[in-house]
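Feature request, filed as a ticket because there's no other form

It would be nice if the structure record came with a short human-readable summary line next to the tokens. Right now we just get the raw output. Example of a typical job, pasted below so the devs can see what we mean:
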Amino acid sequence: EGRGAYYEKAGTLRDMIQNHVFQVTSLIAMEPPASLSANSVRDEKFKAMRSVRPLPADRVDEFAVRGQYGPGTVLGDTVPGYREEPGVDPNSSTETFAALKLCFDNWRWAGVPFYLRSGKRLQKHVTEIAIQFKDVPHRLFTETDSPLQPNVLLIRIQPNEGITLRFAAKLPGQAMRIRPVNMDFRYGSSFGVKPPEAYERLLLDCMLGDSTLYARRDMVERGWEIVDPILEAWKKPAPDFPNYEAGSWGPQAAFALIERDGRKWRKL
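Raw output as currently delivered:
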């Protein structure tokens, strides 16, 4: 993607997961702050990430997956593999994809896994948060023509910023037929303006002296504490690189990571 020389020194875990993805994760997992002041918000974000269960060094593969893209097709265009990109070592073991399972040991999120993934040259360029609601212990709607799907709250960051609540609704008629429907909010269509780009907002906040959305030192250090065992385990070259085609949704190991728990990645 034209950033080979930089990416050789970083990789997806350092470039995306440790900072951008963890910042979003902390916003979802945090408790309500006492106020909207920068320190109140960042205190709660740090408290949430501090409760992330340490990854066992000898079982990193159970919680983290890495990948590197090979040649493929993205949006109809044939693209080279990562090792063929300018500035990249032909035998590079730098990851261009990472997927993690995090567990929070706190009152709010005990027993609720957080699945994170980020990658380059995937099928789509999209950023979203999917919060899947737990199934009820006893279902009333058992005589339906298809299995009930879980309710999901979707927060779309880009493109088309907005929020979607997906739930089951009964179709008109006597038969007990139920299918998923959406309630949608779209930022652009609701307010008639284009939302600012990510760095526009950060640059403006910097000029205004508002540090709410900026990472604080303790949060950065905590992020490194979480990923350090993974980085240590990934010092060994990956024998199967490249392990996913450009234009796909990542390596098969990423699907196995979530399917072991009886779950699936959402179709985007």
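Something like this underneath would help us a lot:
The mean pLDDT is 92.
The two ends are 21 Å apart (CA to CA).
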